[in-house]
Amino acid sequence: MKQLTRDQRCAIVRCLVDGVSIRATTRITGFAKGTIQKLTRDLGEAVLDFQDKAMRGIKSSRVQCDEVWCFCYCKEKNLPDSMKDRDDVGSMWTWTAMDADTKLVFSWRIGTRDATTGHEFMQDVESRLANRVQLTADGHSVYLTAVEKAFGEAIDFAQLVKLYGAEKEAATRYSPGKCLGAKKKPVIGNPDPDHVSTSYAERQNLNIRMQNRRYTRLTNAFSKKAEMLAYSVAITFMYHNFARVHQTLRATPAMAAGIANKKWNIEDMVDLIPELSYNTRPRKGA
To answer: Helix 33-54 and helix 22-29: axis angle, to 10°?
Structure first.
């Protein structure tokens, strides 16, 4: 049993935050799959704890919320009967809250798309904000009760309800329905119609799919355990918030939001891990 050096940890993390799968990372770095998974777990725990403490008292004016789908273990339709009542397998939804001005993803929750997860998520969003905000979500009905229960009347809340229709000549079975339009629906308070939008949050969904291999569709890189999915997502958002310079901001979201005074690098992220030992046995043939 040896200990990974700082440079070795950084090499692995650079692969993971750039959308490389675990098996591909083993081929690139020469470290065993178990070593990479243990590093994912240890770094995931460290960045979860750090972000939970750092993302407090967020001063925002506009917040956008959305959900992105993936699956864990297998797709819902393939679940055996003995596992259909479990909430850690099958379809998994990542609920995200983003500050529209700084692109900071300050709250997220992984779970089902039901009221239980939605209420937990919105309670967390409320606990991290320092002032009244305008919040926009999609047309998912869970938001109606979740936002009201978390914020009461102390929010300006609207939903952007998109209207979809089937393509006359669908190119493939995976093509989404054609968006025929969108309806802005004020719900609580006095939301500004010009800022009722989920565009930034939806664009962030693409970033998640590109930067985290577990979210890439039509591959076998999906998570087999919900715990590992949660750690992987925490690493992805840590990199997005603190280490990745946003093109239009010319700073990281954390810097723009005033919760970081510098651009983090991979080394800074790795330094959050307590000193632990890792199995550095290289893969066969490495």
So the answer is: 110
Is residue 282 over pLDDT 60?
no
In angstroms, the CA 18 to CA 205 distance is 15
* Per-residue tokens: 115: 């009221």
Q: What is d(CA 188, CA 63) in angstroms, rounded to the nearest whole number?
A: 14
pTM of this prediction exceeds 0.85: yes
How far lies 119's CA from each of 22, 190, 226, 247, in Å? 33, 22, 20, 33
Long-range residue pairs from 31-38, CB within 8 A, at least 24 positions apart, any chain? 31/4, 31/280, 31/281, 31/282, 31/283, 32/279, 32/280, 32/281, 32/282, 32/283, 33/283, 34/279, 35/4, 35/278, 35/279, 35/280, 35/281, 36/12, 37/228, 38/278, 38/279
Q: Which residues of 229-263 are buried (b: 16+ CB within 10 A; e: fewer)?
A: bbbbbbbbbbbbbbbbeeeeeebbbbbbbebbeee
Confidence band, pLDDT 50/70/90 cuts, at residue 171: low
Give the start-end residues of each E strand in 145-205: 156-165, 178-188
Distances (CA, A) of 123 to 77, 137, 145: 31, 15, 11
Euclidean distance between CA atoms 213 and 109, whole angstroms: 18
Non-local (6+) Cβ contacts of 144 within 8 A are 159, 187
Give the three-state DSSP class for 227: helix
Helix/strand/coil for 263: coil
Q: Indicate the residue type of 272.
A: L
- Note whether 189 and 177 are within 8 A (CB): no
